[in-house]
Design a protein that fits this description.
Distance between the termini: 74 Å
Strand order of the largest sheet: 4-7-2-1-11
Order of helices and strands: HHEEEEEEEEEEEEHHEEEEEEE
Number of domains: 3
Largest sheet: 5 strands, mixed
Bound molecules: calcium ion
Structural class: mainly beta
CATH topology of the largest domain: Immunoglobulin-like
Strand content: 35-45%
CATH architecture of the largest domain: Sandwich
Amino acid sequence: MIDKFSKLSGGARTIVLCAAILLIATSVARSATATRTVTTTAGLVTVELAIQPDAGAKAFCVEEQLPPNAAARAISSGGAFDANRGKVKWGPFLDDQARTLNYQIISTDSQTATILGTASFDGTSNVTTTGTTTAALEPSGLDSWLLASWGADIFDRPERLPDSNVDGDDFPIAVEFYFNLRPDEVDAHPIQLMRDEGSGEVAVIFDRQKNPDGYQLELSHSTDLSAWFSFDGLLPAVQDIGSGLEHVEYRLPAGEDVRFVRASLEQLP
Ligand SMILES: [Ca+2]
C-alpha cells in the first residue's frame, strides 16, 4: 500500500501524512486513565478513583453510575450526587493535574452493585474507568433508613440530623430510626405496656432496628415515678420480623398494680 501511495501526486501524500498525525494524537489521548478501588471498613463502603489526565489536558469531568436504591455521600473535590440519574459527578477540572476522588455508597438493600464510570477529557476523549466494578452493599443503619424514608437529597438537608424533629411528634430522628417510626408523620409511643391477665406480668413490647447503628436503648421501670430500676438482668424475647427489624418483648414480674417504664436512647461513642 505504501508503494502504491508513493506513486500518487504530492497532494495525496499530504493527506496520508495528516492521517498519521491524527493517529498519533488519538493514541496519546488514550493514555489517560481512571482507576477505581472499593474498600469496605466496618460496613462503610468507600470508592476511590485515581484520575490521570494526559499532560496538556485543558479540562476533564468524571462520572460514576450507581445502581438503584443506592446513593453517594461524603463526596470529595466538589463532586455532587445527581439523585435523578443515580450519578456522582465531578468537574470540570480546568487543568491536567492527577486527582484522587472518593465517595461513600449508602444502600437501602443488600445487593452486589455494579458501578460504571467514565472520565471525559477536553470534551472529546472518554475513558472507561477500570479497576473494581462491583461492591457488596448492605443497609448501614441510620443513613440507609434516611435514604429509604426520604430519598438521596436528604443528605443535603438539616432533617437528617439525629436531633431534628420534622413532624413535631415527641421523637427526634434518632428515635424515629431506632423504632422505625414515620419521620414525617406524628407517631404514637413506640413502646407498649400490656398486663398479662393470667400471670400478672407486664409485657414491655416494641419493634426496633436489628442494626441500631450505635444507638442503645436504656430502659428502667418504676411503680411510683420516684424509684427507678434498670432492666439489666431481664432477658427479652427477640423475634426477627424482616425488613431489618426485630420484635422485642420484656416481662416485668407480677405483684405491682401500677407500672411505669422510662426509655432513653443514647449513641455509643
Ligand atoms: Ca414521627
